[in-house]
Amino acid sequence: MCCSNCKTHFCYKCGNAYETGKPLCCPFFDNETIRQQRQEREAEELRWQRRREAQRQQDPEVLLRQERRRLNELRILDPANHAHSCPMCRQTNAKVGNNNHIFCWSCQKHYCYLCRVLVKRSSQHYGPKGCKQHSTG
């Protein structure tokens, strides 16, 4: 048997620990049981090796794209999440309350949540001739 916490293999009949590479020699087991246990242990180790190898072979760029895609899907599925990508650096920023003026924490630029235009002066962009600075949704 194998402890799920420390991964130490031990005999469930006598309770003695044994090393994975060495044969199990317990007087309470017959040879068939010992052989079965060894095969199961080797199959388990092979599965773990394959998983580790697959993780090592994953290209970091592929992993990054998968993670971005997953986060994007989560963002789309959550209607309460009013997040947009910055028009400058594409970093995701959340809309806070009903304020349409967004400050990108990544590139330190200001932009409008409604039209996604970089804003240099709030007074020139928001107002009667421009976008509303405050709106719901």
How would you characterize this protein structure?
- A two-stranded antiparallel sheet has the order 1-2. Strands 3-4 form a two-stranded antiparallel ribbon. The chain has a two-stranded antiparallel ribbon with strand order 5-6.
- The radius of gyration is 29 Å and the shape is rod-shaped.
- Helices cover 36% and strands 12% of the residues.
- The chain is built from 3 helices and 6 strands; from the N terminus they run ββααββββα.
- Among the domains are: 49 residues, no CATH class; 44 residues, no CATH class.
- It has 137 residues and is of the alpha+beta class.
- Strand 3 and strand 4 form a beta hairpin.
